């Protein structure tokens, strides 16, 4: 059930404790892909995963802003501080839980959100009246996962499949040429570059021309299936807290 | 320009300092109107107002959550604390301003956000590198404004016009019958009721059956024109700070 | 009972759950009225209202600082951030409530405090162990209310009545001449001016020469009667929280 | 100059950078002395000290609430958290400094405020645009200082001198009988008692019958002279920051 | 140079901008390894790495507490909230940078600190007057890294090498028997378990009997060499901020 | 029991509710004494005091950073803000208390920490699930206490006794010559100097040549005995909260 499209009376009739909150970012994705790529992807995966799951799930509205200051040198990028982002997540989950939707999966479309979501879901589970975990779609696409970049093959493919009008076909070649091969500058497993502008000229990492719409369809199906499995596990989990030793 | 649908290279080519951020809420709007009413309305008015304005404006993605704890007794209502909401607004404006979009109008669809937006826009203007003001659509619909309730004639009309599938026609009569006549319980210009559940049985204030789609079209046009006038004024305003006396 | 003048043993003997906290501001009020106008007015109204009410009320000391950064360009203006002001209010109410005075009316003398008081009283009522509402005196003076400005007829009248030595009679004419006619600069129901120095040369809004001491006496009586009615309503109100729907 | 009684135009004409902010508390002072003792004393000393000083000083309104949770078991005691109290002090000083009054003496009447004032004045001096120090009146009364208790000889004397109607003469004997001899319960220079209710039955420490009005007059004179000396030193001090070594 | 053992005059004579801050945790490491394992390891690696590096480095005292609430069910575990931990790191780096040591490597011994260190070093580098990165020793031990558990082969080996008296040889077998095979409970790349007590009976993950002292010596040498390479890279890096696109 | 050296299983076997947390600072102590003086002293006293006490005590790892911004002008000084320091203390105590060690003595080696420790221990005792007090070693050395300076006779003596290699004998004479005679610059019991660089050329206050190792041994014994007495008192104290009056 899309929460934003439902009435409160319809929500009152639901018998589930499961909710999904899509979280993304509005940030540069190269010269060919839209700034909204991350939240559009999170939203698409969340919808497909909820659809694939056998049971009722409350689907909250998508949070379009994330922890993206690393892209601040590229025009149009918006960001929240990690503190504010965590507060948004924590309070969103708390309000859902107040209505009984107290098993919540945060469906994420942005790498920069991963740490903050892990921390927030731990805090929620330990200190609030809810159980929360986060799920990042591009970690859940089988072998494709190794090709994740930024505005690269996977994200380009997914947007092409879900929002074909939003990929600038004419700029794909340019996007490929200005792209970096990998994310960051690494020495001793430490990334020396805190901002993406330090290592990518046009904001892209990976080859976006390898991101066909057909591949996007496959990615969506893989991610949706993985999310459905997670929803199943979350719905059945014993979420009582462990005993002290 | 819809920021989320644009690429950073397109944003870089813009020559404007104007941005609009739609802000709403996900909260009960009676048995007939969707929980997303406030952000859908803010989004519709923002789009129409930007369209009506003669000049470029960056249209940021809509913030779907607001200061709505007053509706917490109705299932599905989500809310942010005022502190978090203000932080979201302030950081959103700061990131837009970092790219030169430093005259920002916050287009609001929820009464509960008004105070927080006024405070946040004052803080931004006094202490950050941007000028911000807020605009609430239902204050800008001429004489209709006096009929604003909650899920009442104005909001029902606007949703019917913009998202006709989201109004439950079959429950309008029930919505009318359970509605309160006015917002709050007042003594000496003080509202004694901090939560809407104290004075409305079904969450509605006002008569939703008076909210035809035609009326919605008129409301949208009025609000859009008012927003365009505000954008004009903001674009021309001398935003340098006053002199000390 | 004036709390500050009482001993704790006298407070222990009281049988009431009602308290009043006067809150004001120290800020410019033109060349003719004192910087303390707002807290002196709040204090006078609070005293008169408590006197007019038939029952015991704890009258806390007056908080002399408020949310007044909008007047910062005028020498002598002091202000708290809204966050600090809300914390002062919330903690003041919490300490009163710890002694059983858990129905609290915040009696306010400054327009800039209104939003923060509404938020703080909502937070207190929803999350703390007390019920709180705020009352602003110049909204409770019948038809006079439409003439409220800043250092204008109403405030000048009240100070003249309560503290006649604090109005500079010799500067009233100058005050009138340099005054603005209305508060703010408005387009589409949005005030474009965040600071008063943007629209008033000498800090005054309205005509202070229309503020006679006799009018002040009338204002005080009207406001005190309204406050007494509010205290009556608060003392009788069922402050249990509403049921979830 | 009493800031609250002055107009902004009068403040604008001042040529000084000195300000004084009286800070106190509203807390139990035994069965004989008023809850306002601390702020009334701070106010009286501040006024007398400013009077005794040869030069202009801005005298801000008195802050009537302090760090007094230690007295929470006695009815009527109000308190701010140390964080909020420090914020009030810091923001008060910052607004005074914005007008050029950037050498500020915080005149204190409550032992529980001492640590927080020391921290706040250090923070202000190191990080803000002002120089601040705090002064506690009962440390500045010569040999009398050794007799300071709580609601004991010194405070009783000062209130008797400044506000004779506020000392309950009929309860002095009772106050004396229920008093503790010293503040706290000490082992190895550590006070084991965090709350005053742990060691005083009626809230008093010391013998209030030893606090005559004549002694109060002497205390006021001593404290005022000490404050005047401090104002002299502050006005002449080189407040530029030290060099790094 | 060990900062804590140096005098300020010796520090003043240094010509370097490099500093290292070891950060660990005090938390359960099974029945055989000490609660201090993580900070002792961080300290040992930091010392060896600084030694291996060809140049001067300021070695700050070790921070013995970290983000370890996940182990709270095991007696003796101490933890800071992520917010406080990040503040400690940020302020430590800021004070070092104030003396010119503004290229800082945070040498980490605890997996639970990784996210918070990444965030803090990004914040420092973007907003403060320093450049910071973090380094986690057990990611920098070549192929051994794949065997990292908790109190498992790697940590047991390192403690045995550096602090042989702190490993309880007699309890190694018991530690092995009660150990979990892997960290966490995973579905769709999401760890469902927020607390370690959910998946390990005695707090151990991995086989501690595979952690000989000789292996510990090798681990230390590998980690120290990697840290020395990172120090070299940090000392030579252009830390000016990237250009806006 | 040294917590960091123990295993969780050993901690689980303890039957005590007493814990000690040594807290110090890393800050300049003149040209002759190490920057770590304060935390090394706190650690030595804590160990000796725990040893002298007849009963089990958990000895937590030493917190090496404190409230020391006052020494910021001297190279190598590190500091935490008072807010962060208090959070570290409060969270450390909370985690110890979660395991049943809920009577905690904070053993302090730095004057600048005293106020913050008093506040934190009050907050903990009133609002958390633990009882806490702080103990500062140099207040507990009998008549020696009057000679406490900074890097002066007492601290020099203690370091010479506990860590003789860390006192630079060759620089003692220079240290003495550049020392100030007293801490601060005082007028009317107010210290006008917020930073130590304002009144001491080389960071020293007092005569370090008067700090022999033999004196250090005596100081340690005195302080340890005082701490043992405090532990005794804390272990036996009725820590239930007082009754309301």
Residue windows where pLDDT falls under 50 for at least 5 positions of chain A: none
Overall mean pLDDT of chain A stands at 98
| Radius of gyration of chain A, whole Å | 18 Å
Net shape of chain A: globular
General description of the model:
6 copies of one chain form a homohexamer. By secondary structure, chain A is of the alpha/beta class. Chain A has a single domain, classed as Creatininase (Rossmann fold), CATH 3.40.50. Helix content of chain A is 38%, strand content 10%. Chain A has helices at residues 8-13, 37-52, 82-98, 114-127, 153-162, 172-177, 213-236; strands at 18-23, 58-59, 103-108, 131-136, 186-187, 190-191. In chain A, the strands form 2 sheets. The first copy, chain A, has a 4-stranded parallel sheet with strand order 2-1-3-4, sandwiched between helices. In chain A, strands 5-6 form a two-stranded antiparallel sheet. In chain A, helix 4 links the parallel strand 3 (103-108) and strand 4 (131-136). In chain A, helix 2 crosses helix 7, helix 3 packs across helix 4 (114-127) and helix 5 (153-162) crosses helix 7. The longest helix of chain A has 24 residues, at 213-236. The radius of gyration of chain A is 18 Å and the shape is globular. Chain A starts with 7 loop residues before the first helix and ends in a 9-residue tail after the last helix. Chains A and E meet through helix 4, strand 4, strand 6 and helix 7 of A and helix 4, strand 4, strand 6 and helix 7 of E.
């Amino acid at each position: 059930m899309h929460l934003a499209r439902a009435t409160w009376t319809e929500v009152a009739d639901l018998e589930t404790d499961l909710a999904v909150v899509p979280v993304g970012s509005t940030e540069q994705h190269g010269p060919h892909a839209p700034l909204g790529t991350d939240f559009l992807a999170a939203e698409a995966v969340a919808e497909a995963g909820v659809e694939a799951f056998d049971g009722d799930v409350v689907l909250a509205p998508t949070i379009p802003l994330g922890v993206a200051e690393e892209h601040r040198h590229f025009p149009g990028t918006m960001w929240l501080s990690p503190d504010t982002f965590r507060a948004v997540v924590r309070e969103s989950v708390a309000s859902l839980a107040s209505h009984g939707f107290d098993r919540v999966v945060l469906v994420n479309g942005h790498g920069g959100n991963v740490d903050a979501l892990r921390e927030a879901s731990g805090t929620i589970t330990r200190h609030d009246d809810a159980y929360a975990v986060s799920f990042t779609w591009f970690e859940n696409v089988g072998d494709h996962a190794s090709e994740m970049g930024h505005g690269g093959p996977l994200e380009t493919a997914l947007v092409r499949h879900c929002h074909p009008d939003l990929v600038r076909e004419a700029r794909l070649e340019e996007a490929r040429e200005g792209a970096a091969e990998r994310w960051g500058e690494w020495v001793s497993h430490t990334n020396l570059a805190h901002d993406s502008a330090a290592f990518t000229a046009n904001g892209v990492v990976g080859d976006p021309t390898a991101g066909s719409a057909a591949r996007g369809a496959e990615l969506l199906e893989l991610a949706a299936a993985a999310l459905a499995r997670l929803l199943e596990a979350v719905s059945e989990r014993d979420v009582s807290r462990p005993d002290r030793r």
